[in-house]
Design goal:
mainly alpha; Arc Repressor Mutant, subunit A; two-stranded antiparallel sheet; 6 helices; 2 strands; 5% strand; elongated
Length: 148
């Protein structure tokens, strides 16, 4: 598993999109500016998210992007799959024929499979809505900070 910059930036952009739109489209350059992400890179990310049915795009002068689903129905596992493909650790296999087969099976069954189950359960329980709520809490906490 590799939680790539592509997934990290994609999730950040989706949080931003969810926070800044209710009924109006949000333009890509606005999201890029607020998050310090290259517009060209974000275009690639949004193309993959649109293809996966996570985003809708609207053309025209008032166009931009909208979520294709409500944030409480958008699982982070869907986002990571759309951007990175499979998020599970690779299967452990013995090399050189039968040498190391037992050891490889132990690594697979006792380490890799439990990790993959945990990652799958975690990403399938986390919604965009939850991340938006967390982002709002962080913003509120930052606004309550006083500096002397």
């Amino acid at each position: 598993m590799n939680f790539s910059k592509r997934s990290r930036y994609g999730i950040r952009a989706l949080i931003d999109l969810a926070q800044n739109t209710e009924y109006n489209c949000v333009q890509l350059n606005e999201i890029a500016d607020r998050n310090g992400i290259s517009v060209k890179y974000l275009e690639q990310i949004f193309a993959a998210l649109r293809k996966a049915g996570i985003l809708r795009s609207v053309k025209g002068p008032q166009g931009g992007y909208l979520l294709a689903k409500a944030p409480d129905h958008l699982w982070i596992s869907e986002v990571v799959l759309a951007l990175d493909g499979d998020y599970c650790l690779e299967k452990e296999e013995a090399r050189d024929g039968n040498r190391g087969e037992a050891e490889a099976q132990v690594v697979q069954s006792e380490i890799i499979e439990p990790i993959n189950r945990y990652i799958d359960e975690f990403l399938n329980s986390l919604t965009l809505k939850k991340l938006v709520e967390c982002a709002e809490q962080y913003k509120d906490a930052a606004n309550d900070m006083y500096y002397i």
